[in-house]
Amino acid sequence: MIDATIVRAHQHSAGAKDSSAEQEDIGRSKGGLSTKIHGVVDTLGNPTPRFLTPGQACDLDGADILLPVVEAASSFG
Fold it and tell me: What predicted TM-score, i.e. pTM, was given to this entire model?
């Protein structure tokens, strides 16, 4: 299964010293600052690969990256 969820953060949680928005994958949208988590789980429901994008990113952006992982895993089982 592939899924994505949005995590919202208070404005003060962003902007740590010596970091940039690209490193933190924090995006600005109508709802404020947010990050989207894209992930895959195995047959037991354990999380496998996952990564972050800015919150305004499309879910398909994550699927494009995660589908090859799913296809590779299914070819072994």
Answer: 0.56
